[in-house]
Amino acid sequence: MTRPHGRWLPLAVLTAALAALIASVVWVSSSTPNSTWRPGPKAMMGTVSSTGPIRTLTDADRAADRFADRWNLHVGEVMQFSNGYYAELLDRNGRGATEVLINPDSRTVQLEFGPAMMWNTSYGMTPARKQTAAAAIGPDQAVRMADQWLKEHRTGLHAAEPDRFPGYYTLHTLRGDRIVGMLSVNATSGDVWYHTWHGRFLQVQEHPAST
């Protein structure tokens, strides 16, 4: 589902679109039969509201940091897209924990829908069956799978190095050396999920310093 550029989407619209996005996932390989999914305890924690306006990467970083504090996490990379802000949350050892969206209109931070909700085995929606400790797919293989998907569905783009999260990888998509968007690769099945909800990429910064 394509979002119009230059418009901030209300949280309610984004939430309502989740079901449609899930249904439109493009798979690159055969999946195992779907298990029964249940909300993880941390995914039930909802959203956090910012105490001030969100107009810059630094504002988005501060808002995401309030959300991260509840889980004893901290903010890593922060990105601005035409449809809102994105941030990755890291654990105390600097490992990827989960991903969030920051809505500048509603001033809210929420768990990113898509892979962060459906594939994250620690902070999102976790399957009822027991998870294996080790990912079946390594980072190099995730890049190859992402590149193959992009070759077939987003001609002219290629994948950057992956960021690992519990149960999946997220990779920037590039045209040459310029960021265009991002996608995720499931670390067990190899399924690919393109992040269609961000809109046009604008800028990125590693944990902007507060002022």
From TrEMBL:
This is PepSY domain-containing protein.
